[in-house]
Amino acid sequence: MEGESGRCVRVLCPKKTLLGFSSSSKESPGIRWLIGSPLFLPPLTVVSAFQCLHGDPFLPDFSREADDIRILLLRGFDIIGALFIGHGSLKENAIRAVEASCRLRKSLHNDEVSFDMIGAAADLPIGDIHFLVSDSARPINMEASTVIYEDNPDKYLWEKGCLLRCELAFKLPAYFPVNKTP
User: Name one GO biological process term (predicted).
Assistant: First the structure.
């Protein structure tokens, strides 16, 4: 199932969630942050997405966005990419999405580590999403990847993910002589 290059994007949430459809409205243009869990799930697995919170939907305020996302994201989950919903070339929009997600991730973690990011662009007339994977060090050298929309995401999470982590506390007694003071 892996793509020829070994990069496969797996999507666990419905396409409507990614596009931001609600019962009362159609899609709203802008950037959606793609959420994944590199600790619990295989890389490039999209668990959910949420809308840009601060600033212009196409040009977010990255410092304020990072502050709020730090609070919203559960431990172990992280920004793994972005979806750009708007008009224009799909490749250009995917590059914008990767650049935005790299800037946000840099604001979140203050690191220069190279990692794969997902850039996605929505084709609004047909309601399809095109995913590309890029190394953050070279966002221009993007490659198309295989996309798998999971039919049974709950089963996938139980089989592949580790959502509960148990830590056993050891109680070790400390012995020291009563007649000696430290």
Answer: proteolysis
176 confidence band (pLDDT: 50, 70, 90): low
Burial of 51 (0-12, 13-18, 19+ CB in 10 A): middle
Flag whether the pTM goes above 0.70: yes
Does the domain spanning 8-160 belong to CATH 3.40.50? Answer: no
Q: Is residue 153 within a helix (H) or strand (E), and if so which, with residue range? A: helix 153-160
Determine contact, residues 140/102, Cβ cutoff 8 Å.
no
pLDDT tens by residue, 87-99: 888 888 888 888 8
Q: What letter would DSSP give residue 47? A: -
Q: What is the C-alpha to C-alpha distance for residues 65 and 160, in angstroms, rounded to an integer?
A: 30
